[in-house]
Amino acid sequence: MENIEDSEKRPLDFIRQIITDDLQTGKHQKSITRFPPEPNGFLHIGHAKSICLNFGVAEENSGICNLRFDDTNPSKEDVAYVESIQTDVKWLGFDWGAKVLYASNYFHQLFEFAVALIKADKAYVCQLSPGEMREYRGTLTEPGKESPYRNRSVAENLDLFEQMKNGEFEEGTHVLRAKIDMASPNLNMRDPVIYRILKAHHHRTGDTWKIYPMYDYTHCLSDMLEGITHSLCTLEFQDHRPLYDWVLDTLKTPCHPRQIEFARLNLTYTVMSKRKLLQMVEANNVDGWDDPRMLTISGLRRRGYTPASIRNFCRAIGIGKSESRIDMGVLENEIRNDLNVRAERRMCVLDPVKVVIDNYPEGLVEEMVGKNHPQNPDMGERLLPFTKELYIERNDFMENPSRKYHRLGPDREVRLRYGYLIQYASHVKDETTGEITEIHCTYDPETRGGSAPDGRKVKGTIHWVSAEKGFPVTIRLYDRLFNVEDPEADKDVDFLDHLNPDSKVVLSKAIAEPSLALLEPGKTVQFERQGYFCADLVESKTGSPVLNRTVTLRDSWKKK
Ligand code: ATP
Ligand code: MG
What's the CATH number for 107-214? Predict the structure, then answer.
């Protein structure tokens, strides 16, 4: 996990500073944070920022971080989401201790708190229609109007709320509202709804409840019940903080967590909201929530991202209070840096053209030795069979090369990585298509391993695979899902119009070196000169690998 020395050198962000101060002054003995997802979709890279913050704070301060599902909206929730979220948090390397928590665990207590608010004349049952309610609410510049139901007696409110609970009214006819201030400049304080009628089946409480508490009301009380010390959330909740505090103050709860807001993560070349991700899944714009192009945790995992690269990314971007959009290149660089150290090197020809070595003995197979990592001898070596017929990359040969082109061409000599120096002899073209079908070369037997004993200079080094011993692999070249930095910038244009049509290119002719046959699903290698590729977790099998390109070796999107 986090390198302690590293973290000590960095100044604390403003949230960690507040928490450190609270522990030092003795305001709290222990920090308790929580990560509170709604189980209405898969987690994305934005959630990773919140996870790394909440669980990170707990780790750094010997505190606790709860995983709590905010499951108050049964019509949009699903157990499949509950499960995927737990898998993702664990995969990122975090631990929520004894058990998973759910806001629905507190439904009875939340109901009792609502009764207490009614008894204190701080909540009332309102029968305005949703349209009327909007009208009465006022605007940012005009105060709201009080509901005609606002001054019901406590007894009448208790009775009506009980009937709501018992399912005696239709959805949308009655709500319970907090009695705060219809003239408040903050719209959230204009008698917000705290309970609504919803006759929906809940994935945990079944058909027990006909009414469900609203998010704002549920959240502060759940935090309080768990003894949360610091309730960390994104900036859009800043205007909800007075309501968070009002509920706890009015109920005079023994514990009052402090809500602190931070800027959410936005990334270029993607959309982040779960609603839009779900829309793409349902419209089949992508191959499911875990499509390797999706910026979901499960998509990134399938793409070949490591937990460490995501945690490093979250640490690198830091925690602040101003909204910004981080360049996708920053995330891609983190996975490059991580894989550069971890990934074994392999050779694979993505777009093959055949090379015949005219003077190489027919039927001979020589085992060349390739390093698994050029800088790390501990990672070992593997054998690369060398034969008379090989494949090289089609674009590693040019009929009329410029002086700057150092690969193969007429009269050129080139080095085959870990193989021999080969000299061009001739090439064959398909008469009708003009496509080059074969390149003939000769090899210098004195150059085994790739260096010439006479010291002659050969600039170009290219990768290759034996035509006989190599075997076919399926390669999926993934790229960014959108082709503009902010797909949501123009409100008049559908964000889907900016989908990158080349975000997934499937190659069916690629040939890999034999050692690739043993690549386990989920393992990532570097194909020399091509990028990092990960054996797909779902579709790859030992013996018939399907590889996803995790990331190229360089950022090709970078503005020149
Ligand atoms: P979305 O807006 O993508 O639908 P959400 O905020 O509705 O996400 P929740 O399940 O409510 O999703 O989020 C759980 C936690 O993750 C919340 O505390 C939320 O503030 C945080 N979170 C969500 N998106 C981001 C983001 N882009 N950056 C940082 N934190 C985020
Ligand atoms: Mg939300």
Answer: 3.90.800.10
